[in-house]
Amino acid sequence: MSSLEDLYRDLSLALGDAVWAFARIEWITYNHINSYYSDSVDNLIVEIGFANRAEILKKIIKDKKPISDNRDKAIDAINKAIKLAKERNLIVHNPWKIWIDLDAKEFMTEIEKFAAPGKSINLDGVRAFVNKAEAVELELKEALNAL
């Protein structure tokens, strides 16, 4: 049976990785919105949630760039980031549940959505989220830089 101390390190590292992976995606949206304007638009949108900020970026791209495969790829990548934000919210805004499975003789863990008890994600799911976020980050960077 793994110790609580090991579990603490595993959970903390996974949560930190998840937060950091999505934070990089958020910075990409800030930087690209700002790149379209000479003034500091990021100061105007700093308090707006990610999904709304991403929708603003999509509108800017649609208004500023002619229709092209690059524009469509950028909008698709932004949509993937918006979808990923919902999963991120489950991870960062809800508590871990930890219990012992007496049959398996091991600690069990998951993050359960407080407002919807059936919706949850386990430690492997958090790690998978990090991988998805890294893939979306790369796709978003490449698509926005190609505009």
What's this, in brief?
The protein is mostly helical. It has helices at 4-35, 41-45, 50-64, 69-92, 123-145; strands spanning 96-101, 106-112, 120-121. It contains five helices and three strands.
The chain-level structural class is: mainly alpha
Shape: elongated
What is the residue-mean pLDDT, rounded to a whole number? 84
Kindly report the spatial arrangement of strands forming the biggest sheet: 1-2-3
Ends distance: 52 Å
Query: What is the count of β-strands?
Result: 3
Q: How do the SSEs run, as a string of H and E?
A: HHHHEEEH
Largest sheet: 3 strands, antiparallel
Total separate domains: 1
Strand content: 5-15%
Assembly type of the chains comes to single chain
Low-pLDDT windows of residues: none
| Contiguous helical run count | 5
Radius of gyration over all CA atoms, rounded: 18 Å
Helix residue percentage: 55-70%
Describe the structure.
The chain is mainly alpha-helical and 147 residues long. It has helices spanning 4-35, 41-45, 50-64, 69-92, 123-145; strands at 96-101, 106-112, 120-121. A hairpin with a 7-residue loop joins β2 (106-112) and β3 (120-121). α3 packs antiparallel against α4. The longest helix has 32 residues, at 4-35. It is elongated. The model has no long low-confidence stretch (mean pLDDT 84).
Indicate the topology:
Blueprint: H1 4-35, H2 41-45, H3 50-64, H4 69-92, E1 96-101, E2 106-112, E3 120-121, H5 123-145
Antiparallel strand pairs: 1-2, 2-3
